[in-house]
Amino acid sequence: MYTRQQQQQQQQQQQQQQQQQQQQQQQQQQQQQQQQQQQQQQQQQQQQQQQQQQQQQQQQQAPAHPTASMSLVNSSYARAVVAAGPSVPRDESAGSFTFHGRPAQPQQQQQPQ
Predict the structure, then answer these.
(1) Nearest C-alpha neighbor of 113 from the set 77, 93, 76, 88
(2) Does residue 107 fall inside a structural domain?
(3) Rounded distance, CA 9 to CA 3, Å?
(4) Total number of domains constituting the chain
(5) Residues 66, 107: Cα–Cα separation, whole Å
(6) Within a domain: residue 3?
(7) Cα gap 8→1, rounded to integer Å
(8) pTM above 0.85?
């Protein structure tokens, strides 16, 4: 009688282990689906990075006129300076910003095209 009870208990434990294995397999399948979605998102990000690189290359190919240090100048004023060209004298106080002291890097403004 004692040995039969042990056998029954062992069978019950084996059934419980099988159920746990099935649950683990389901979880693994869900994780695989999530990984596929993440890979698709990474591919989209790579495409966006390629587009940004192309835009940067086009900007570098444009003719570069010497301007005041671009970090101090806002983009709208910098575009106006590039369109006007270096021969036109610049009003450093134009726009919404102000230079404190001398303009940064005045030697660039004196260089000809």
Answers:
(1) 88
(2) no
(3) 10
(4) 1
(5) 9
(6) no
(7) 11
(8) no
